[in-house]
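[job 4471] stage=fold_predict status=RUNNING
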Amino acid sequence: MKKEKVVYLFCPYKGKVLNAKREISFEIRLTSRLILDEICFNWNKRVLEDRINQSIQNGNKEEFASVRKEYLQYIWE
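[job 4471] inference complete, writing structure tokens
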């Protein structure tokens, strides 16, 4: 889906025509970025947890050790 843009055209009585674009406020951009980061973080964490559980079920110690190292980056809080 194409991004819709709103463009305002200001025509002063004298001089050349000015074109202005309406921008999204900083608060909305920051909030949307934080929400997307949280969604990506949770999805990546869930995928790693699934891979860890799968390696435990399969009894694959090497895969478990490698995925565990990646997972530790998500739980260091």
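[job 4471] summary: The radius of gyration is 24 Å.
[job 4471] exit 0
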